[in-house]
Design a protein that fits this description.
129 residues, mainly alpha, two-stranded antiparallel sheet, 8% strand, globular, DHQS_C, NAD, Dehydroquinate_synthase
Length: 129
Amino acid sequence: VSSDLKEAGLREILNYGHTLGHAIEKNERYKWRHGAAVSIGMVFAAELGRLAGRLDDATADRHRTVLESVGLPLTYRGTSAQAAENMKIDKKSRGDLLRFIVLDGVGKPTVLEGPDPAVLLAAYGEVSA
């Protein structure tokens, strides 16, 4: 962490699930537990990676299995418009360019820049309650 203070490289991958997670926290006026919000963000990131053709179905599904097994939430009731607006202020974003940490496989994080809005909406649909 101390070697990447601007979160532009290695430290950035530690933010897996945090883009939507932080948006949920903001939507909920910071009354949600961080881990619960990031859990939903991780499922979203897995679905985003899957829908973008980067992550296989089994690995995306495993996110749900593991997180559910420890009692963490998998879905959220907020609107996609609220989430999208709050994701734009994420520290990984560059102006209006949304950037997400996704997986190319287990243990293979990467940055997905400017995903197609239809793919974003579909991924959000996978975590909407």
